[in-house]
Write a structure and sequence with these properties.
Blueprint lengths: L14 E5 H9 L11 H10 L3 E7 L2 E5 L3 E5 H8 L4 H13 L3 E5 L5 E6 L2 H4 L3 E4 L8 E5 H8 L6 H10 L1 E2 L13 E2 L12 H8 L3 H13 L3 E6 L4 E6 L2 H5 L9 H8 L21 H17 L10 E7 L6 E12 L2 E12 L6
Parallel strand pairs: 2-7
Antiparallel strand pairs: 1-8, 2-3, 4-6, 5-6, 9-10, 11-12, 13-14, 14-15
Helix pairs in contact: 3-4, 8-9
Length: 358
């Protein structure tokens, strides 16, 4: 029986994978502002350190058994995660999360160690029934989308909170959402299927002013977290996440072009329309020129996920499909042998020359 693996992040799924690698990256990025009273990112940090199975932690000669959804650390270390300069501020954040029904915590007697437990951890994460050390800087955990809405309600978001809000609401390869076939697009699940948004709605969502929302988007775009595409008129803005595919699915990230998105959303890019002209002679490209362009073409195809195009063992065939030499066929085949199994792949591409250069 043949199985087909499809890489998707669909809109119906109530949970999102949050990779600990991403959390550690945001913790280490000192350029991101911490201003705000939203606890979304703070709670995600606690979830990233929580055990997914039982393990033992030895501190100052004392062994502690820590169950799934729990962790023990110093209050000062936790204050560093939260960006607090005072220990009582970290305790106040924990109290807020307790009041929201997200966790419980207590101080270990005679120490400055705090132990916390994520409530209902087993409801949205698999609990492994054996005892072993848990990695804290790799792997992932599941985070319910409904938690994000509850934690953001009536608060002012920091830049880290905003990044995680966008991450929770990113859709990929779901045909019901416009633009999701091109790349990982942000869609706030409003029932329209349209990812277009505005700074006014984002400002209301994040508890900031419209100007601040616009400035944050531009800043996160410059820092390489987002690809913000703004369209003319009252159409609005579409947000794509950078490095989403490499983190979530360990595949190459694809470049997002504004023209492709505009075509999917049936929008104008704002470019002036040029006068169309039909050449008097048929467009023709010699095979010598095509062979000179072939390395760059193979490099582009490899970046789009056709990895055999960059393989040293590949076989390439190029020949014209029309007498005018404006249509070419490119065949790329690759064979690899591992152990006693021979794997082969073959791709055919049609190249159309639509525009000449003088």
């Amino acid at each position: 029986m043949a199985y087909t693996l499809e890489i998707k992040q669909i809109v119906d799924y109530p949970r999102v994978r949050i990779h600990r690698e991403l959390i550690q990256k945001l913790l280490a990025d000192e350029s991101l502002s911490r201003r705000g009273d939203c606890r979304l990112f703070s709670f995600m940090v606690l979830c990233s350190y929580a055990n997914f199975r039982s393990s033992r932690l030895r501190i100052d000669g004392v062994s502690h058994l820590i169950g799934p959804g729990e962790w023990i650390c110093s209050l000062r270390e936790m204050a560093g995660w939260f960006g607090c300069s005072r220990l009582y501020q970290a305790t106040a954040i924990l109290e807020e999360l307790v009041q929201g029904g997200f966790l419980t915590f207590w101080m270990l007697p005679g120490t400055k160690l705090v132990r916390y437990r994520i409530l209902n951890w087993g409801a949205f994460n698999t609990v492994l029934e054996y005892e072993c050390r848990c990695q804290k800087d790799c792997g992932f955990f599941f985070f319910p989308i409904s938690f994000g809405k509850r934690l953001m309600e009536g608060t002012r978001c920091s830049e880290r909170d905003i990044i995680m809000d966008l991450w929770l609401n990113t859709i990929y390869k779901d045909g019901r959402i416009k633009g999701a076939e091109i790349g990982p697009v942000v869609y706030f699940r409003d029932g329209s299927g349209d990812p277009l948004t505005s700074c006014s709605s984002l400002a209301l969502r994040w508890g900031v002013s419209k100007t601040t929302a616009s400035r944050i988007l531009a800043r996160l775009d410059r820092l390489g977290y987002l690809n913000v595409l703004t369209f003319s008129g009252r159409h609005g803005t579409v947000i794509y996440l950078e490095n989403y595919l490499s983190v979530m699915f360990q595949i190459s990230d694809l470049p997002i072009h504004k023209e492709d998105v505009a075509l999917q959303l049936q929008l104008k890019t704002g470019r002036p329309e040029e006068e169309s002209c039909v050449p008097s002679e048929k467009i023709s490209v010699s095979k010598r020129i095509m062979l000179e362009l072939l390395p760059k073409l193979l490099q582009s195809l490899a970046a789009w996920g056709f990895f055999c195009c960059s393989c040293k063992k590949k076989s390439v065939k190029l020949y014209p499909l029309s007498p005018a030499c404006n249509r070419w066929k490119l065949e790329v085949s690759c064979k690899s042998r591992t152990a006693s199994v021979e794997n082969s792949s073959r791709y055919c591409f049609e190249i159309r020359v639509t525009e000449g250069s003088g």
